[in-house]
Amino acid sequence: MSEKKIEQQVYTREPGGIFHSGDGDVPITISEGLDQARMNDLLLELGITESQFKQLLFAVISSIAGKKKVYISLNVELHHYTKVAAALLELLYHFLPHSHRRCFGAMTYTSEPEGINDVHVLFFEPGTLNDHGRSMEEPYIFDFANQKFSGIDLVGQHEYLNFAWEQLLVGHRLDEFFEFAEKALFSFTEEDQLQLKNYDQLTAIYQTLNGSEDYYRQNKLSFLYSLLNFLKVEKAVKEDLEKLWLQILKEEKAAVEVETAIDFIKAVVEFNQISLHDKGLEFILNTLDYYNHNPIFHEVMKIVEESIETYEPLMEFITLHPDYTQILENYLTEKFNHTRVEDILSAINQLLLTVPFVAKNKGFQALIIKRTSQALVDSSDIFIAARAVKEFKVTNQDVDFSKIKEMMMISTELTLLKAIDLNNVTVKDIGIFAYLSTGRLHVKESKDKLIIRKSKMMEVLHELFNSPVVSVELLLQPLSLDSREELRNVLKNVLRSHLSEKYFQHLLAAFNEEDGSFHYPQLFAYLSKHADDNLVLAFIKWTDKNLQLDYHYHRALKNYLKTHPRSIWKNKNTKKELQQISTVSFRKVVKEVQNESASPIVKFFNRYGINLSIVLLIILVAGSGVYLGYGLLAGEKDGDTDSKTSTVAAKETEETKNQKPSLDPFKRWDVDNPYVFNVDGQQQLMVFGQANPTGGKSLVLTDSKKTETSFDLVMDSEVSPFDEKGVLKEGFSLFHTEHDFDQNGNSEVVIMALNQTFESFVWVYSPISKKGRIGLQANLAIKGMSDAKLVDNTLTLLGENGQSETYAFVNQEFVKQ
Fold this sequence. Notes:
Blueprint: H1 3-13, H2 36-46, H3 50-65, E1 70-73, H4 78-94, H5 98-101, E2 106-109, E3 121-124, E4 140-143, E5 148-150, H6 159-170, H7 175-184, H8 190-193, H9 196-209, H10 214-218, H11 220-231, H12 239-252, H13 258-274, H14 278-290, H15 296-305, H16 308-320, H17 325-335, H18 341-354, H19 362-378, H20 382-390, H21 402-419, H22 427-436, H23 449-466, H24 472-476, H25 481-496, H26 504-510, H27 520-530, H28 533-546, H29 551-563, H30 572-579, H31 584-596, H32 600-622, H33 626-634, H34 647-650, H35 654-658, E6 667-668, E7 675-679, E8 682-688, E9 698-702, E10 708-712, E11 733-739, E12 748-754, E13 760-770, E14 773-784, E15 789-791, E16 794-798, E17 804-810, E18 813-816
Parallel strand pairs: 1-3, 1-4, 2-3
Antiparallel strand pairs: 4-5, 6-11, 7-8, 8-9, 9-10, 11-12, 12-13, 13-14, 15-16, 16-17, 17-18
C-alpha cells in the first residue's frame, strides 16, 4: 500500500492532524476528544442551533454524494475567521462517515473561485457571499452573518442525524459506529456508500444491536428489509447482522400480524436465498401452521414456491415429519384443486419435477388418487378421462411411480364401474373399459357386490364384442342368473345404435333363453323397431343360412311377417327377396304367409280350385249366388284363435299346441263370458264390451247386489290394442288373473292384452269399497314387449326399449325400480 493511501486511512480515522497548522497556530480543536464545553462554546459563538447543525451536516453529506456545494458565511471577526472555520470543519468532519471523509474537500476564500469540482464546503467572509452569482447554482447556503439559509430540503426522519446530535451533546465519538457502518457497506458501490438513507438504516440496526428495540418495534418490516439489504452483499463478513436476523426470527416465531404477514414471509424467503437456516424454515412452518385454515396459508405457499432454495427443504421437511401432515394435506389439496383429470395429472408432474421425494408420502398418494377419482366422476366423458389416467407417465425418470400408478388405475377402474350406466353403455365404452381394466379387482376385496357384478358383466361384454364367436352359453356361464338376464338387456341397449350384420350373433345372445332357445317373437319386434327393412331381411337370410331353425323360429317369423305393422312383407322389394330364399322350410313359411295374408277372393280360389271358381264367378255375375258367395268369402269362424284365417290355416296339431309358451298365472278371457272373482268373499262379475254398442273396450263390473259400474281400459300411449271404435284389434287376446301384491287378503285384478308378437298392454286394479259398493281403482297401466311376470309385490315385463322393467307395489301404488 502506498504512503499516500496509508496517510489517507490515518486521517480518515484520526482527522485531528488535518486541522492543525504546522507553525503552532492551533485553532479551537476537538481532535483529542469531543469536549462538550468546547463544542457548546463553538456552537454558541456561531449561533448554530440543533436544527441548523442537522441541516448543515445533512448538506455536507448530500454535497459529497451529489453535485451541490455548501456555502457558509460565519458571523465572526476576520482575524478569527480562519480558526473558527477550521474548528467548525473539524466538528463536521468528526460526524462524517469514513466513506464521506475520503471524498471530502473544503476551502476558505474571500472571492468566488473558478473550477472547484473537488471542494464541497466553501467559506465566505461576511458580506462576500453572492447568492446570485453564476457559480451559485442551487447550492446549500448557510449565511449565518445575515441569517439567510436556502437550498435545504430536510424532509422526514433521519435516524443518523438525530444519532449524531445525541452523541455530540454527550461528547461521544462515532468511531465504533463508523467501523460498523463500513463493515455493513462492504463491497457496496461508492454511490451506495455515500447515501444518507443507508446510514439512517444502519443507525437503527446499530442501536438495536446495542440493546434498543424501539427502532424495530416501530416499523418491523422496514427494519427487516433494511437488514436484508445489507446482508445481500458479502454476507460472510457481516456475522453480527446475520445473528440479529436469526434472533428476530427466533423471538417472533411466526408472522402473526395479518397486515404484514405476506411481506414478512417475502423477506424471510429472500434471506433464505442468501443463507438457508433452520430458523428461517421453522419461522415459515410456524406461520403456515398459524394460518392453516386461513386463505393467507396459500398466499404464503405461493411465495415459497417461487424460491427453490426455500421450497425444496421445506417440502422435504414436512413430507418426512408426521407432525406437519395437516400442512402438507392443506397445500396439496389446493395444489390439486382442479376439475379436469388432465389438469390434476399435469400438477402431479410439475410437483414431482421439483420435489420428487413427496411421491413416498402416503398422504400425497391417497390425495392424488382421491382427487383423480372425483375428477373422473365430474368429467364430461368419464371414459376419455380414465384413458388419460391410463396413459399418464411421470416426466421425472428418477421417480418410481409404478406402485402409485397401479393404485390409481385400480381406483380409476372402481370409479368407472360405479359411474357406468349399463343401460347407456356403447361398444366404444366396452372397448375402452377393457383397455383400462387392471385385471386386479378380484385381488382387491370389495364389499360392493354391484361393482364386482358390473366388472364381470363388462368382461363378458368385451369377450362378446372382441373375441372370435364362441358359445354364448359358455361366455355367460360365469355370471349369476340375474346377471345373465341383465346382460341380455344391456346387449339390447348396446345394439340399438350398432345394429349391423357384424353383430347378428350378438343379437341372438340378447334374446337367448336359459334353456338355450331364443325368444324369437321379441327378437323380431326389436328388429322391426331398431333396424331398417334391408337389415331385417339380411338377418332373416343370415339365420336361414347359419342356424338350425325350428318350429318356434318359423312360427315367430310367420307371425311377424303377417301381423306386425312394420313387417318387411309390406315392402315389395324385400318381399320379393324373401320369396327367392330356396330352403324348403323357409319356402313353406313364405307360402303360409302368402296364403294367410291374401284377400278373401284369393283364399277362395286357392281353396276350391279353378273349375269351381269359374262356376261361382258365373253365378256371381248372374247375381243368383249372392248368399253362397258371401258365405264362402267370409270364411268360417275359428273359436280357437282371434285372427280371421281359413279353417285349414287355423288348424293346429296337438304337438303345436303343446309348444305354446305358458302364460301362467294368466288365463285367456273368453269375452263372451263374464270374468268371475271374489272380494271379501263376495262374488264379482266383470264383462267386456257390454257398455259399448260396438262391443268395445268398456268393462262392466257387477257386484253381489247387482249394482253395475262401467269403466274403460285406457292407457297413456300412442298405440292401443283397441281400434278407433274401441274394438280389440285382430291378433290381440285378453287375459286375466288375480294377484295379492300387498298381501292384505284382497287380490288385485290384472288384465293383459297380448298379441302373437308379444306386444302387451297391462292394467292393474285394486278392489275398493265405498258406501257398501265394490269398485275398482286403477293402479297401473303400462305397455311392454312380453307377458307380465308377477312375483310377490312386483310386476315385471320387457319394456319397449328392450329393457326389463320392474314395478313394485308399495304403499298402495306402483313404483318403478
